[in-house]
Write the structure tokens for this entry.
Amino acid sequence: MEPIRIAEQLQEKFQTSILGIDEHRGQVTVLVDRDVIVKIISFLKKDQKMNHLSCLCGVDNKKRKAASAYMERFEVVYQLYSIENRTSLRLKAQIPESDQTIDSITSLWTGANWLERETYDLLGIVFNNHPNLKRILTPEDWEGHPLRKEYKLRGDTEWRGLEELKKKAVQLQQFDFHNASTAQGTSSDE
Amino acid sequence: MQILIIILQIAVLLAVVLLHVAYTTYFERKIIGHMQVRMGPMRVGWHGLLQPIADGIKSFFKEDIIPEQADKPLFLAAPVICLVAMLASLAVLPFAEGWALADINIGLLFIFAMSSLASYGIILAGWASNSKYTFLGGLRSMAQVISYEIPMGLSLVGVMMLSGSLNLTEIVTAQGTSIFSIYLFPQIIGFFVFFIAMLAETNRVPFDLPEAETELVSGYITEYSGMRYAMFFMAEYIGMMVMASIGTVCFLGGWNGPFAIPFFPPFWFILKVYGFLFLFIWIRATLPRYRYDQLMALGWKLLIPLALLNIFLTGLFKILVH
Amino acid sequence: MNETTTLDVPVSQGDEDRYRLKLGPQHPATHGVLRVDLELDGETILDCDPQVGYLHRGFEKLAEHRTYAQNLVLTDRLDYIAAMANNVGYCEAVEQLLAIEVPERAKFLRVMVCEMSRLTGHLLWLATHALDIGAMTVFLYCFREREVLLELFAELCGARLTTTYTRLGGVRQDVTHEIMMKLERFVDAFPACIEEYETLIDTNRIWLKRTIGVGQISGEKAVDLCLTGASLRGSGVDYDVRKHMPYAAYDKMDFEIPLGETGDTYARYRCRMEEMGQSNYILRQCIEKMPPGPIVGDDAPDLVMPVKPGRKVEVDTSARNGLIKLIDDRDVYMEGDIYVATEVPKGELGFYFISDGMGRPYRMHIRSPSFIHIGALATMGKGVMVADLIAIIGTLDVVLGESDR
């Protein structure tokens, strides 16, 4: 079935939850309400055999120029593909700034686990019912979410852990590897 | 005077064996290199001939690092145990008629005892380093040694039955008078079991699990450096030579050959040992590595029953002949 | 000295006998800087938790601050083993977003370099996979052929690994006659090389024991884990972007997609071996069918340098002159978004772009197959032995540069 047909079918079935249908260069995007995202995707997975989750990522719309009426601060983009029917469809769930959460689709794809963790890590969108929502690409004590538009490319301050690291380096000075006599001295003291 | 002569003999044997160790590493690198379409060592000396000596000097002068959390006495002792056990087993090997340092009656048993002792060195090294990889390597080694000592011992029982002795010189002499003048043919099953167990005993590919570099980084020697690392290395190569010698003595007729070589009686012995060493190296270049449980299964489910069958057949043969 | 042996992780009651091992990030078999936190019972893995991020360079953030042409160099550093395929994937995506036409010859050249990089990628995979399982010789045999291809890359674009060969709307350099001759010689000789690798391991009993039944996943499970590439096709799922959504000149090529049945390590190994044969076949077609013509489209917004006089490169320079323009000046950048996937050696490499009319991408997301494959490791690595985990890491064919971006 044509992607645009599928989108229309979605609109019939979910009506008000579908906020809009967009087509760009032959690729169809459906803007959906975040509350029904799991329902819509499981419908697509079962009925339209959209069994391959190509891509899952988040978008920060803060600095988008041509903002459409439906556009909230964040979006989560799901790119679905049907290996059998060779059709693809893109879903965009809108997430307002006031409540940055969305339901997790790990129940539908185990592989979505890491993609959602990445989205959480880089954009700070919280996925409800996610089994293990931790930072993944940045260190666990990282501050801020790098892909948000207010996050500067070049930061003002150093990473917090750097100070600790420097202290550790000073501590390790006693095992001065360049000076063999002191190194032996410390080891024989023990 | 007697003692002086023995000390001299020991010194000569030690020098010859250590030189062999050095050049076995060289030939291993060369042979594997050529099998893998590359040159091997080429820089030090003509075609890299001085490479082993350079390696020896390097490891001798390298810093001997002892991890802070290691169990120091055991950590220091482990490589020594390994090397001493291997060197001790050299004493009973008969290189030619009368060319054995200690021609004792339980030669074969002595070698088994020593090779089991060497595995203590490996296990202790794994334990004392207090590192996770070495510990796993030590555990693997322990399991491997226990499972492969048994088929190895059993595989040689056939030889003992045929020759009626545990003395290595007598085993060789007995072979000279047997039908084929070597035990390889009447003991073909025994030889098969022995050969596989030999690879496992010396931790060589495809049974190099205790030091599997892609799984356990370097296994039990991960934390060692410098001369202590080299000691493990020497122990491994001496172990290879000892095992090759046992194979030669028990199955290939020791120093006996098609014709005698004047002035150099151990010629055939050495040639056969070289053949074994080449096989070791060839296998290393060819085969992948077994998994831990597959190794156990092979040892317990295939080799031990086969060795027992061999003993049974040899016994039957002896009864029928007499 | 060792009166208090403290474990580095707090242990819950009843779990004290579990052995915790952090495999990596410095480990010979983790293909870069992958760290896998293991909980072992003997050698059996009870819990497996892969950790990535050691190589995170923030490409997606960086891309928002650079022009489309500048971002091309970032893609070299994704899967640094097959940089050409990433270049092609990136350019295909941007061209679709900006509706830039690519001349026919450039399309064929892209297919050519794509397949060459697939061969380099698969050769490196085979080399390291075999080495992980202990077969050392295959490693060097594979590098022998890989070297030929890398030298060809160097001749084509001046770099062996970080190629940056493609341009928006075409490719950087045309092939010379000499390169084609060398490639043809390679294509003629390569099938015999595949046979050589196979004689070493294909029917080796130890290899079979180590691969058959190891890391077995059904087709459904593989789709559930979002696997792509040969890792998915080994389980019998027919999904290859080159056939499903043909890009460049793949619709004009005749090739087959090899499928496995059992979904174990051996099936994936066979799949990739067959793929190498198919890539070789595609390369032969490229050599035979290579059409003449320009290598950069007329409306390419590229910063292509004009060819210096006296330099002997057989290129059609007429199309390229006067193309040096600042990207921000152009008005082709429409508002919109696009997701374009390409088949790189590791699997499906997708680029998701949002353009808001500026000369820079508003958002660039890279769907990297390695990242998802490592995510699958947590599921596949449970209950196997340590040696099998190493085999599974090898068979999933991951590159950490691509995973961490």
Q: What stands out?
A: Residues 65-321 of chain B form one domain. The CA atoms of residues 54 and 67 of chain B lie 26 Å apart. Chain B has two domains: 1-61, 65-321. Chain B has a mean pLDDT of 85.
